[in-house]
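Worked example

This section walks through a single chain of length 341. The input is the sequence exactly as stored; nothing has been trimmed or padded.
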Amino acid sequence: MHNSEILLHVTRGSLVESLHRGYLAVADSTGKIVASAGNPEVFIFARSSMKPIQALPVLESGAADAYGFMDAEIAILAASHNGEEFHTSTVASMLGKLGLDSRCLLCGPHAPYHVPSAACLAKAGKEPSELHNNCSGKHAGMLALALQLGADTGTYMDPAHPVQQRMLETVSQLSGYPAAKIVLGTDGCGVPVFGLPLNRLAAAYARLGELSREEHPGPLAQAARRIIAAITAHPGHLAGTGRYDTRLIEVTGGRLIGKMGAEGVFTVAAPQLGLGLALKIEDGAQRAIYPAVTEALVQLSWLTDGESKALSAFHKPIVRNWKGTEVGEILPVFKLQAANG
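Given that input, the structure is written out below as tokens.
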């Protein structure tokens, strides 16, 4: 990585104790950069920010209809969820419709991100299952697609598997970046993860938003409309209680669709504007994501004053000590540069 910009200061008292550098790109569906901070063409792994796009083949193929997935189940295809009960029951319902169970999910188990849910599980003496994995909805979708394609369900994570090839093709199609140039790694849940330039990730979100508009015909556009509509109707299924992804959609009524990814990645689709935003925090710190994204949305005038106020706790978070006393804050310090400036 190179040519990053200081995006945030972390203060303690009168001093800047820490800082976070990163990159931000705002682009149209061709990848043309509209605004940026740092190098907008830096090559990154998209991580879970790609999940809404990975959901498209599940819808486009007819798998979601073949197995009777409801809107909440479609929304959770794109989720990095908290592992709350309504998340796990939704994924369990999907697996039941497929005639499968949680043992067929190859994502591995981890404790719920939602602290009360994790505590409740521990109190009951139960171990987390694959259903609690934040990626379980995506994996259930991959199983559905495998069944729809008549492919093996036991090897759906293999990069050469028809499911992963369909997803790679869709990522290439929406980003406008050749599939042969997309670098594949292994994500935390075991499936392929996609490496591409940041502006191309922004372009993929711009294209997702564009396709979701009514004037676009065809199965892929219909799939885009369905995933956007499902997420808008069920924002809690995308992330969960207290999560920024959920609140952004709730606050804007689905006018903006945002999705986080591990290691400091965040993406936003603005369908009405035909633009997408992609962020990468250089050191991967999650605490830096939401202040940086919110500041960018404010600078771009993508949020109303009321919406900015509703997201204020994420914009400039207070740093507190163990007693709860305010000792500093996380402050965005960057200024987006227009493409012509």
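What to look for: The longest strand covers residues 15-28.
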